[in-house]
Design goal:
Elements: E1 2-3, H1 7-14, E2 18-24, H2 28-35, E3 40-41, E4 52-58, E5 61-66, H3 73-78, E6 82-87, H4 92-110
Antiparallel strand pairs: 1-4, 2-6, 3-4, 4-5, 5-6
Helix pairs in contact: 2-4
C-alpha cells in the first residue's frame, strides 16, 4: 500500500471511484498511525461531504478511505469508527488487507 501525497495527482486518480465497502472499529488516530496524515482535509475544498480522505495505490489499483457526511471534523477525528472505502474496482481484497494491517498495528501499539 502506498499513499498518494500529491493532491493534484490524487484528484486525477480518484475520478470515477465509488463506494465499495467499509472498515469498522478503527479510529482516525489508528488510520493516521498506519498511513500518516490524510491526502485531503476539509480545507482542500470540495462540497463539505468529506473531511478526511486518504488516496492509496494498492497493487496498481486506486482506493480511497474517507469519512462521509459527518460535517464535523472533530467528530471524525474523535468518534468516527466506520470509514468508507472507495475505488474503481472491487474493494473486498483491499478492505481485508487494510483491516489486517490495522489490527496488527493495533497489537504492536499495545504490546509492551
Amino acid at each position: 500500500m502506498r499513499k498518494v501525497i500529491n493532491k493534484e495527482k490524487a484528484g486525477k486518480l480518484i475520478g470515477g471511484s465509488s463506494l465499495g465497502g467499509y472498515i469498522e472499529g478503527f479510529t482516525y488516530e489508528e488510520l493516521v498511525d498506519l498511513m500518516g496524515e490524510p491526502t485531503f482535509n476539509e480545507e482542500d475544498g470540495g462540497d463539505g461531504k468529506i473531511n478526511k480522505e486518504w488516496t492509496i495505490i494498492h497493487y496498481g489499483n486506486v482506493y480511497t478511505i474517507y469519512d462521509w457526511k459527518t460535517y464535523d471534523t472533530n467528530y471524525t477525528m474523535t468518534k468516527l469508527k466506520k470509514w468508507n472505502i472507495g475505488g474503481k474496482t472491487n474493494c473486498a481484497d483491499f478492505i481485508n488487507e487494510l483491516t489486517k494491517k490495522l489490527e496488527n498495528n493495533r497489537k504492536e501499539y499495545y504490546t509492551f
